Amino acid sequence: MIKPKTEEEIELLRENAIIVSKTLAEVGKAVAPGVTTKQLNKVAETFIRDNGAIPSFLGFEGFPAAICASVNDVVVHGFPSDYVLKEGDIVSADIGTLYKGYNGDSCYTFPVGEVSPETRKLLDVTKESLYRGIAAAVAGARIGDIGYAVQSYAESFGFSVVRELEGHGIGREMHENPGVPNYGRPGRGTHLVDGMVLCIEPMINAGGRAVYLDRNGWSVHTADHKNSAHYELTIVVRKGRAEQLSTFDFIEKDGKIKF
Ligand code: MG
Ligand code: MG
Fold first, then answer.
1. Domains, the chain, ordered by start
2. Could you say which ligand is closest to the alpha carbon of residue 97?
3. 181 CA distance to ligand 1 middle (Å)
């Protein structure tokens, strides 16, 4: 039995989620051809610390940076590096915070300059698959309903769902039960109850779903080296409609930047 969060805990998770959401927007403003992923890491780490939070990924099981910066065929857990972003790339920024004893965790895949129509489609479909997953995360439903919603939408465009990684509960720990797979069957798995806080995070590949682990022991690549996109939001399961704690509004509703 997974204990739902109290409203007090949810408020602390919301504070984290807002810091992460704003950090993603700061990173988004910095994304451009000619910028290195290390520079993005610096922007994020500075913003997180300026807001009194701790970048929770740094040192997590030995992870070497404040953010995961996953470029093109890297699905997740890319190391920020001296790689210089170029027009047409995509870069996923996955960001975590620890603030007042609770965690934040969200991700956005940014296009670098103009991307191909195929890549734009991958980004749009992956983000929409996340929203479909969120729409399925209501009290009385089950974990399999979320995965089914994500998978059926993404696969209808010929894209594929990474199976090796999944979303999760979040609270005092960054990763709590239940796991939230991005594939599944309706009516199966853990029962969703009001107050359960989940990170839903589809990782969708333009090509096949097979992936492999980089020699660095962390970064996951697509086996066919086609692009992969990743969007993640933190939500509260509620009756009738899930409540979003993190948001992409700071990225997408800023007049200066348009994704
Ligand atoms: Mg994440
Ligand atoms: Mg996560």
1. 7-257 (3.90.230.10)
2. 1
3. 14
Q: Hunting for tokens 């992870």 — which residue is that?
A: 63
Q: Residue-wise pLDDT tens for the chain (259 aa)?
A: 789 999 999 999 999 999 999 999 999 999 999 999 999 999 999 999 999 999 999 999 999 999 999 999 999 999 999 999 999 999 999 999 999 999 999 999 999 999 999 999 999 999 999 999 999 999 999 999 999 999 999 999 999 999 999 999 999 999 999 999 999 999 999 999 999 999 999 999 999 999 999 999 999 999 999 999 999 999 999 999 999 999 999 999 865 555 5
In this structure, what token pair is assigned to residue 249?
């509004």
Give the pair of three-digit tokens for residue 146. 């979320």
- What is the spatial distance between Cα 193 and Cα 248, in angstroms, rounded to a whole number? 25
Q: Which ligand is nearest to the CA of 230?
A: 1
How far, in Å, is the centroid of ligand 1 from the Cα of 19? 14
